[in-house]
Amino acid sequence: MYPVKGDPLEVNVTIWFSGTIEYFDGATWQPFIKPTMTFLEGTYTFRFSDQTSPSIETNLTLIAPSVEKTVAYIRLLKSDGVSGQPGATARWWDYGKPKQDVPGETNNDGVLLCLMDGKHTDVLIEMTFEDATAPFKRQNPTTNSFYIFQMTKVTVELRDHAGFIIPDNSTVNYYWPYGGTERIFGILSNGRASKDLLMPNPPGFVYLIKDFQKSRQQIGPTLNTTVVFRTGKVVDGGFGCDIYWQYGGPTATFYDGIELLPGNFYFKDIDTNTVKNFQVKAGQILNLQTGTYSPPEEYFYLTVMTDPENLTTIPGEGWYVKNTYVELNAPDIVFISDNTRYKFSYWDLDGEPQGVGVNPITVFMDVNHTATAHYVLQYYLTVTSPFGTVDGEGWYQSGATAYATLDTGLVDHGNGTRRVFVSWGGDASGTNYAQSNPIVMNAPKTAVANWKTQYLLTVVTDPAGLSPQPTRNPTGEAGPPNSWWYDADTSVTLTAQTVSGYNFNYWDVNGLSQGTGVNPITVVVNTPKTATAHYVAVTYTLIIETTPGGSTNPMPGAYSYAAGSQVEVTAIPSSGYVFDHWELNGTNVGTATTYTVTMNANYVLKAFFRQVPPLTVSISPMSASILIGQQVTFTSSVSGGIPPYTYQWYVNNQPVPGATSSTFTFTPTAAGTYYVVLKVTDAAGNTAQSDTAKVTVSSIPVGGYSISLYKNNWLAIPAYILIIILHTTILCSAKYGRKH
Description:
740 residues, six-stranded mixed sheet, single chain, 1 helix, mainly beta, elongated, 3% helix
């Protein structure tokens, strides 16, 4: 942080920091908008943090400069053009003026501040890193204050006489030949080493390998970004020897076909102890015995490429002896990131496709060849959902159309909670859980299933099943009986209705009373809930009374019944009494022994009983004299008791079958004296018996009939005369019939 040119009351603050920066304004933490913000003079707390280190807080007092200054921001970038290179120094000067050192070095972001007193409009700046000074940059810092320098990546390779990489781990050094110090460039790994260098002026670096086979070689100065050390091959020609580098290098153990860096050597024949000088030439084969050089065997170069270019390195590129067979095997998958990859499609050899999916291929090295592995770009579709089972996730070729799917749009947890699919989000869209709208796979995509939570609201009454039921607003979606689904946090107004025969008392929600008489209530459905509307039944009093002579069921007394209920009361007379009638609140309501009261008011129900007279019975006639074949009819008179009555006639103390009515006709079939009695039973089971009537039955006399004429009965004389005439006529007719 540093002050720059500006109003004396303000300070411009510039921060180069790869993490997060915040400042405290006295009330809250505010984000610092990189790279520059303007503050009023004062003391501020700044907080620095990144993903790998704990946050750091520091207090800074900002004071605006009192003199005019010019600032230049100097930055050295690595070869990737993004990362900064720390440790570089810089010098600045006005055109035609002496150079001045810029205090300090570049920080981890590669930034160095150049603060110049006064106004400068033509400033030159040069950077130095590891002894090398890059060409200066000249510009007007008041219009463009950023001086950007960038390093160059240089690769050093060690190859054999035929051009093949030598898998060696020798150390490579380098230096700037115009006053630089020799430094380590890097350690070869599989024959290669790379390093970012600040390309100098005057141009070029010198590169050295000093420890390969106890020999050394240097190349340069050169500005090449690829520096190749090429060896020569030495064969002994049939005798053994030790070899030495000409500048006194340690003895190297010779073996036939050894690869050595170019230079002058001598060898010592072990058998003859003679010494002879020889020179190794890059790319040549030296026969020590004959002292002759020959070019390498005929080689052809196999170039191995990828489409897209430089996608991956496929082993096999290089020089091959003529008529060699080379197998090339491309990796099936090349990952760019976790969700971006290239998938192998086919090889072409010198532009000729080798067949889709054919891998590996074999190349016959009869000429130089170029083999290209073609890949197709693929992106991954991630499909996520907290519920249900998703499908459609996977790799898709760039530009293809994909769909995200779910096996269900409704998940009921069985506890009054369920999840309802709403829509596809992320990089997907649509409201059909079974298939999203088309997703064009032109980048890695994520389809997210959005769900909403619903809870079950159960609304009941106490007592259960009262009608009408409470109302709901909003009504919700029907669920199980007396239950409805609502989106989480929905506010529902519940109103208890007027129910005949009941008075509303209070609501409870999940057992918690909402207050006596509070109606309606609002329920926030943020969990499964049960709301119960409690009612108290309206009751009326029934007083049952009786007059003397009986009781009731239920017994006389005061009773409380719910409004609308029906109560049956039965009159039970005592012995010797009979029920007469009912009176309800003083009004005669009938004589049936059972009366039903509908309890829609308070009532007094009274049963009236009356005393029953004794049961008596008489019959008539009390005596009779008849002949056989004649009959006599008895009638009865019954009083008292409790109707209806049942009758049974007796003759000589024996019940007469079928003689169960109030009259009885007696037809004797034999002469004699008979005694007739009637027994009567009333509805209460009381019995009464009549006095005994006497019936005398005579036989018809032998020889005819006798007729008695009572004295002074003059009206009977004609009748008897008529009978005599009739009898005489019958006898004459009988005699006449016998003669004929």
